[in-house]
Specification:
The protein is an alpha/beta fold and 562 residues long. It has 17 helices and 29 strands. Strands 3-2-14-13-15-16-17-18-19 form a 9-stranded mixed beta sheet, sandwiched between helices. The chain has an 8-stranded mixed beta sheet with strand order 10-9-6-4-5-11-12-22, sandwiched between helices. Helix 1 packs parallel to helix 9 and helix 11 (304-311) crosses helix 12.
Length: 562
């Protein structure tokens, strides 16, 4: 990389492994042939286990059934539900047909479901029967009323003209839908011929997934990713983690519907032939702790909020979690104090942090096992092979000097084709030189290590001075009573914005706003000390575990009037 400007291209040494020209079904076939009797996945709450051989057989049965009900190459198939075996079956069955999997968050409401199904032109919707208190059939009927009087596979809805079929699992048979168990028994020799034709037509540059962004900043958009992008993103991430050499057992409480779950958990572990342990249908700290204990997991994948919840849960002292030698942190930067706590509680030898987003398949940078502890704690690593990165001034669009904050831009094979059916939105983030403008604020050091400071939309401008919330959050995390903190900007008639900290305390702890301000005094710049501090029990979250700061800003925007 140039020493004066924040630009880097992956070094030739890091590109020693070639890009793979494979499809997702190729990956499953090859791994099954290599490790047929190795456990592929364990759903620990139900003690549901599958070897690669059995998993592949079940995937093929579902693929044949989907062909029987009319799914073909290029069709969009929605998958809606929490983390279950059926979700994984669907992911690989759809890929083997050459259809496009449309990920739908398990917690979405009817209006959100309608938006995604209509925008993507979903032909077949595969759905759980329920999730927590939500009745999925009722919600489907709300957006597609004709389902209650239709035959399965014969939906005709003016509101959703592309949707023909709904396949449900996990509950009683309902009017107008197929039952997944029945679909898995429908396949015939003729369907096998059609499936083979679809597979022969499939190319690695075909679209494999449409993953809707999780909505931390507004309405979700459908990110279009190919087999080639996802496989290579996971391949190079895995090589950096030495997953080709270490036989990890991974605890993975991340939702499948998110890019982290679809690629970094499911595809990643199938690609390398490693066992993934799924603690529960949705994240629960207690089930995650128990899964680590029962399966002797050597690695954990998660977002910062998950680690914080696990490390502060009362069950952490009841079970043995010292088998965890390594943790992988994604989605957003983890507070350094949380990593320090994880080293105390678990048998932790290393932590790996990464940076990426749905629009980049998702991996961009990652630490290595040989990095210093400081690099692994305070950065999200260096660029992965075959990619370019620069940090720019959002106003001038010029590359900033090394060490200066600016917008992170990425270019290379991993960048999405675009947002489905939204050319204008695509052009807003991918420029004429094919740079993806991420909206994230970061800085790059002289060695190419990236630090993420926050989101451009999260940046606080107080009296003309730019303030990045992450820096303040990381300091307040060191307060002994604080479990979690989110810093936002609050409108102010004089300063433009003022700093506000929304704090969640550790169980059994208490403190005051004045105490936290006193804790900050003399330790961080006076203008960064929050003027407002409020305490909460929970934060508004996406289903993938990201905190929705835009909702916090909306909730507390009138705090100055209190």
């Amino acid at each position: 990389m140039e020493t004066s400007l924040s630009y880097c291209r992956a070094s030739p040494d890091s590109c020693s492994a070639k890009l793979l020209r494979k499809t997702i079904p190729d990956v499953l076939d090859e791994t099954t042939e290599k490790y047929p009797d190795r456990e592929c996945v364990v759903f620990s709450a139900d003690n549901e286990r599958r070897t690669f051989r059995r998993f592949k057989e079940e995937v093929e049965r579902l693929a044949l059934g989907l062909v029987r009900i009319g799914v073909r190459h290029g069709d969009r198939v929605g998958i809606w539900g929490p983390n279950t075996l059926e979700w994984l079956h669907t992911q690989y069955a759809v890929a083997s047909i050459g259809a496009i999997l449309v990920n739908i968050n398990a917690a979405c409401r009817p209006s959100e479901l309608h938006h995604i199904v209509a925008k993507a032109g979903v032909k077949t919707l595969v759905s759980a029967s329920s999730f927590l208190t939500q009745d999925y059939y009722e919600m489907i009927a709300e957006i597609c009323p004709s389902i209650t009087s239709s035959l399965a596979g014969k939906l005709q809805s003016p509101q959703l003209p592309d949707m023909e079929s709904v396949v449900m699992y996990g509950g009683e048979k309902q009017p107008g839908v197929y039952v997944m168990d029945d679909v898995m028994s429908m396949g015939t020799a003729e369907d096998m011929k059609v499936l083979k034709e679809c597979r022969d037509k499939l190319e690695c540059d075909d679209t494999s997934n449409m993953i809707f962004t999780s909505g931390t900043t507004g309405a979700p958009k459908g990110v279009v990713l190919t087999h080639f992008q996802s496989i290579n993103s996971m391949h190079h991430a895995g090589l950096r983690m030495s997953f080709d050499k270490i036989d990890h057992i991974s605890c993975a409480p991340v939702p499948f519907a998110h890019i982290f779950g679809t690629n970094n958990i499911s595809l990643f572990h199938v690609l390398f032939g490693r066992k993934m342990v799924i603690p529960s249908p949705s994240f629960q700290a207690e089930s995650t702790i128990k899964a680590i204990n029962d399966e002797r997991c050597t690695m954990m994948f998660g977002v910062p909020t998950m680690y914080i919840a696990v490390l502060n849960h009362e069950w952490i002292s009841r079970y043995d979690v010292t088998s965890v030698r390594s943790i992988f942190v994604g989605a957003s930067p983890i507070p350094p104090e949380t990593l320090v706590e994880a080293k105390k509680v678990m048998g932790l030898e290393e932590s790996m942090s990464a940076y990426g987003l749905t629009e980049t398949s998702p991996m961009v940078t990652m630490t290595t096992r040989s990095d210093t502890e400081e690099k692994r704690i305070y950065t999200v690593g260096k660029l992965l092979p075959y990619l370019e990165m620069k940090i720019i001034d959002p106003e001038t669009q010029k590359t900033v000097p090394v060490g200066s904050p600016g917008e992170v831009c990425v270019r290379g094979y991993a960048v999405m084709a675009g947002y489905w059916g939204q050319e204008a939105k695509t052009r807003e983030v991918i420029d004429d030189e094919n740079w993806l403008h991420t909206g994230d604020v970061g800085s790059m050091d002289s060695e190419g290590y990236l630090r993420i400071v926050g989101r451009i939309k999260d940046m606080i401008i107080r009296g003309g001075v730019n303030i990045y919330p992450t820096e303040i959050e990381n300091f307040i995390y060191t307060h002994p009573a604080v479990q979690e903190v989110q810093v936002i900007g609050i409108p102010d008639s004089y300063m433009g914005e003022e700093v506000c900290a929304i704090v969640k305390l550790k169980p059994g702890e208490s403190t005051t706003a004045e105490d936290i301000k006193a804790f900050c005094k003399g330790k961080i710049s006076h203008y960064k000390i929050p003027r407002y501090i409020r305490f909460v029990q929970e934060y508004p979250m996406t289903v993938s575990g990201k905190i929705q700061k835009f909702k916090l800003r909306e909730q507390w925007k009138n705090i100055a009037d209190e």
